[in-house]
Write a structure and sequence with these properties.
The structure holds 2 protein chains of 2 kinds.
Chain A: H1 2-22, H2 26-46, H3 50-74, H4 88-109, H5 126-133, H6 138-159, H7 163-168
Helix pairs in contact in A: 1-2, 2-3
Chain B: H1 5-25, H2 29-53, H3 58-88
Classes of the chains: A mainly alpha, B mainly alpha.
Chain lengths: ~170, ~100
């Protein structure tokens, strides 16, 4: 039963991921990426990590993908909607490299040692994650907040328009 | 029957390889970015799978940090894409060779 669910969700995740990569329209790619993230959230629930699953839906599928969608809508990409793969040789080198990565990963994963521990549902709830986050991982947690602050300041400075410059351009674009 | 650790790792490897394909074969900077997100998520799946089978909560904490880094990376990356788009009117990475010698 659980195996059937896993196979269904895994197939949905792989299909969505493929459609992200081969899609012509970036808007569709964003939507398929959201669907792939939802599939992964289901897998996280099956793995006994409901808190991570909630984060996946709220932060990834919610916040990050909305940012993506916003930028895709902001940039008018009507002319860039054709199938924009790279040139023939570079494309085949890309496929070969990805295939090599897949082969190496599968070879590494094959017959991996399975500790076979039983599922501990209390491990993935908000309480245990929170207590670990604010005791053992307090320093990384604070560093992450500095990282996010840096990112906010960086984005604002990157996209801030020079007033004199934009007036010279007549406020176009 | 329940899915084993190996199945989760194989799924993760496949999703990662799809992400690599996207990065190496597409020219649209936005699609390349989404492929990077796919690869990050494949890594997250590995971490959560090991966290369940070991069992140790550290893997899930690590996923939390990966998400924080991914949020920062997406914000800065999309800002760079928008800044480049303002200059070049394009998100085609072949047309963005500012740093090419």
């Amino acid at each position: 039963m659980e195996l059937t669910l896993f196979i269904l969700v895994a197939l949905a995740a792989v299909t969505s991921a493929l459609l992200v990569v081969i899609g012509k329209n970036p808007v569709y790619s964003v939507l398929f990426l959201v669907s792939a993230f939802f599939c992964l959230a289901i897998l996280y629930v099956m793995l006994g990590a409901p808190f991570v699953a909630a984060l996946q839906v709220i932060v990834y599928a919610g916040a990050i993908m909305v940012l993506f969608l916003f930028v895709v809508m902001l940039l008018n990409l009507r002319d860039a909607q054709s199938w924009d793969v790279t040139g023939s040789m570079r494309r085949w080198i890309g496929f070969a490299t990805a295939g090599a990565v897949l082969l190496v990963a599968l070879a590494a994963v094959r017959g991996v040692f399975d500790p076979g521990a039983s599922l501990r549902p209390e491990m993935g709830n908000a309480e245990s994650i929170g207590s670990a986050l604010f005791t053992r991982f307090l320093l990384p947690f604070e560093v992450a907040s500095i990282l996010l602050l840096t990112a906010i300041i960086g984005v604002v400075t990157l996209l801030k328009r020079d007033n004199a410059k934009s007036q010279a351009k007549g406020g176009e674009a | 029957m329940k899915p084993t650790l190996e199945m989760y790792l194989i799924l993760s490897a496949v999703i990662f390889a799809i992400g690599v394909t996207g990065v190496l074969t597409r020219r649209n900077a936005l699609i390349i970015f989404m492929s990077v997100e796919l690869m990050l998520n494949a890594a997250n799946l590995t971490l959560v799978a090991y966290s369940r089978f070991l069992p140790d909560v550290s893997g899930q904490i690590f996923v939390f940090f990966v998400m924080a880094v991914a949020a920062a990376e997406v914000a800065v990356g999309l800002a760079i894409i928008v800044a480049v788009f303002r200059q070049k009117e394009s998100v085609d990475i072949d047309k963005v060779n500012l740093m090419k010698w």
